[in-house]
Write a structure and sequence with these properties.
With 251 residues, this protein is of the alpha/beta class. It has a 5-stranded parallel sheet with strand order 6-5-4-7-8, with helices on both faces. Strands 2-1-3 form a 3-stranded antiparallel sheet, with no helix packed on it. Helix 2 packs parallel to helix 4 and helix 5 packs parallel to helix 7. The protein is globular and about 55 Å long. 29% of the residues are buried. The model has no long low-confidence stretch (mean pLDDT 97). Bound molecules: flavin-adenine dinucleotide (FAD) and adenosine-2'-5'-diphosphate.
């Protein structure tokens, strides 16, 4: 199976659903480059959050309502067979022009496609890495420092990138925004709006991946800072989408 960075894999969990039919496939963003983490082109990496169900009344975890596919994947043993299909997805592909700046906004497992991007652009010894002359900016939202995904890799990527990769963390339960609330990815975008709009005006491509719930807050924050800077957000937003500079994959 050949895939490229930013695509997703469809996983078919074993077993039968309550309706008597086989379980439906679930999508997972591919977190490795086309060569895979073993660099032999024969593996694929995923970043899976194990979906638990907590009873809102009792506050206890109810295993009978645990997520089917994520629990299957998180408990899979070496040697087990996992049925997959794909790859799928054209939304989160890297720009063709290797001089394009990229801005990646992730919450939680939304880091997955960007891990693939950053390995391709700054780690692997390939033509793609040598050709890339743009700047990359990753804005990553996680609840606590201990929940940071791939921290050592991100450090190494920054070392390898020679100043061409910036990583901003929004550690929501430890850091505060200007109004004293939780620091979310949209607060970083708003605080750094001058850099953000200057990059976008110069043709940068922006990607969003992770929590579906982050998009309304992000759009609100961008509209607010655009208006403060006398930019008509609706026109700008339509322009970004029409130019292929705006890419969203949230779930
Ligand atoms: P499901 O079995 O589908 O259950 C969904 C939720 O309902 C769970 O939280 C479960 O606990 C709860 N639930 C189950 N039964 C009940 C009940 N009776 N009452 C109330 N609640 C109940 N996920 C990742 O972790 N990493 C990724 O990289 C990733 N990429 C994605 C990319 C795309 C394009 C899309 C669309 C989705 C992506 N997802 C990703 C989400 C993933 O596809 C699954 O939706 C997720 O893993 C949950 O699937 P599941 O089978 O574990 O849960
Ligand atoms: P919090 O849970 O503190 O409210 P994970 O998927 O690992 O839980 O991480 C998701 C991250 O996104 C957390 O830091 C979470 O913060 C944050 N988050 C939750 N809701 C939103 C939102 N509406 N906009 C932006 N970030 C959010």
């Amino acid at each position: 199976m050949h895939y490229v960075e930013g695509q997703s894999l469809s996983v078919i969990p074993p077993g039968i659903a309550e309706n008597g039919k086989p379980h439906k496939p679930r999508l997972y963003s591919i977190a490795s480059t086309r060569y895979g983490d073993l660099l032999d082109g024969k593996t694929v990496s995923l970043c899976v959050r194990q979906a638990e169900y907590t009873d809102p009344e009792t506050g206890t975890v109810d295993p009978t309502k645990a997520g089917v596919c994520s629990n299957f994947l998180c408990n899979v043993q070496k040697g087990d067979t996992v049925s997959v299909a794909g790859p799928v997805g054209k939304t989160m592909l890297l720009p063709e022009d290797p001089s394009t700046d990229i801005i990646m906004v992730a919450t939680g497992t939304g880091i997955a496609p960007f891990r693939g991007f950053l390995h391709r652009l700054f780690m692997e010894n390939t033509v793609a890495r040598h050709m890339y002359t743009g700047n990359a900016w990753l804005i990553l939202g996680v609840p606590v420092t201990g929940g940071l995904l791939y921290p050592q890799e991100l450090e190494l990527m920054q070392e390898n990138a020679n100043g061409n990769l910036e990583v901003s963390f929004a550690i929501s339960r430890e850091m505060k925004n200007a109004s004293g609330g939780k620091l979310y990815v949209q607060d970083i975008l708003a605080e750094r709006s001058a850099d953000l709009f200057s990059k976008l005006d110069s043709g940068a491509v922006i990607y969003f991946c992770g929590l579906k719930g982050m998009m309304p807050g992000i759009l609100e924050a961008l509209e607010r800072v655009a208006t403060q800077n006398d930019v008509d957000w609706e026109t700008k937003f339509n322009e970004l989408k029409a130019n292929g500079q705006w890419h969203v994959e949230v779930y």
